[in-house]
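Internal tracking record. Fields below are filled automatically when a chain is submitted to the structure queue. Please do not edit lines marked as system-generated. If the sequence contains nonstandard residues, flag them in the REMARKS field before resubmitting.
Queue: standard
Priority: normal
Entity type: single polypeptide chain
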Amino acid sequence: MAMIIHVDIVSAEEEIYSGQAEMVFAPAELGEVGIAPRHAPFLARLQAGEVRVKTTTGDELPFFVSGGMIEVQPHIVTVLADTAVRARDIDEAAALEAKRRAEEALKDRSGKIDYAKAQAELAEAIKQLQVLERYKKDKGRFEK
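SYSTEM-GENERATED OUTPUT FOLLOWS
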């Protein structure tokens, strides 16, 4: 029997996922981390990107997180995301519109916008679209 780890993914609004896994991958600030059962404890900041949960059935569940924290204990992983959504639930039209708005804002040279905020919004929209694109491409590997 494979070793398992419990995974909780929560956002400010709701619990997105709670279940058992063989492996978890997350976009930590200094690069992607892979977490297996009995991993050494740590706490890290997350950047916008994809959290993947490899379940005990071999399925891979992809989630988009906009940032937050990850806490790892030997038998539990907790992702505390600013916002989180299952890849299959990403609104592509809304992400494309957010990307378009951010790009337009960055073209504005009047000084009336917050460039750091616009850049962050653009990066988040691009990451959402990347997660959705990967989900569409690899749908067979993901949850049934």
